[in-house]
């Protein structure tokens, strides 16, 4: 995959996000008119983690992909991004106030590769991630259970089986690494919608079909930030903060 546009050093590579989103949506997002939610932000951080443990041609390609020139640049940007996306109490991992936002990473490395202290220090210190050696070859079921337990905890129980039984068929002595990211968000609108004002309105599908669905509505005097662009519209609704 080519990335002809480079991001400025020290800034988040928005082109990477757009290209990734475009490729995924083309392959998955339009199937049967389904909805798709992706986090290029998460992919960027995981690729940054891979870069920390890479060298040679692989590292050069990751620099090109991430729009960075050095590991120092990558780690500095990752630290800033994680701090912005993780307003939690580091002493107990609990989010402070509203909205509830959690952004965490984890790495399970084959014990045959041996975790270097320098790599583990960066993973834990900069990326706020757990990093540990595991036995993919002989204890695949234990690894799957551990990854699933991590996912369930970090997503407040929303994702309980990140790795299914099918994963056991591909985890073996050739497995080197499992990287995981969990982005959790729960917020409450600053101005709640009155359920009694829900109205049946016409919803237009991309294929031209029309459906009547329940729409949230508000009082006429309530104002929200709204902007119309060429081909799309944006509505900004503030969340309650505390």
TrEMBL record:
It comes from the Eukaryota. One of its GO terms (cellular component) is extracellular space. Residues 22-242 form the Serpin domain. One of its GO terms (molecular function) is serine-type endopeptidase inhibitor activity. SUPFAM superfamilies: Serpins. Signal peptide: none annotated. Belongs to the serpin family. This is Serpin domain-containing protein.
């Amino acid at each position: 995959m080519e990335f002809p546009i480079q991001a400025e050093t020290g800034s988040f590579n928005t082109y990477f996000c757009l290209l990734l989103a475009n490729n995924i949506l083309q392959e998955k997002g339009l199937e049967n008119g389904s909805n798709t939610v992706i986090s290029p932000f998460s992919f960027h951080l995981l690729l940054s983690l891979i870069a920390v443990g890479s060298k040679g041609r692989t590292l050069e390609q990751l620099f090109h992909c991430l729009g960075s020139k050095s590991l120092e640049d990558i780690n500095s940007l990752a630290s800033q991004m994680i701090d912005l996306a993780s307003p939690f109490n580091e002493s107990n991992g609990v989010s402070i106030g509203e909205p509830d936002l959690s952004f965490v990473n984890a790495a399970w490395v084959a014990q045959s590769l041996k975790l270097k202290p320098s790599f583990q220090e960066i993973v834990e210190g900069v990326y706020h991630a757990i990093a540990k050696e595991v036995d993919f070859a002989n204890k695949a079921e234990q690894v799957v259970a551990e990854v699933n337990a991590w996912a369930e905890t970090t997503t407040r129980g929303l994702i309980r089986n990140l790795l299914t039984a099918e994963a056991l068929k591909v985890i073996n002595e050739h497995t080197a690494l499992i990287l995981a990211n969990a982005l959790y968000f729960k917020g409450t609108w600053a101005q709640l919608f009155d359920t009694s004002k829900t109205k049946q309105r016409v919803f237009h599908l991309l294929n031209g079909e029309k459906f009547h669905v329940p729409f949230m509505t508000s009082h006429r005097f309530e104002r929200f930030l709204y902007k119309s662009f060429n081909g799309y519209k944006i509505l900004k609704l503030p969340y309650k903060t505390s």
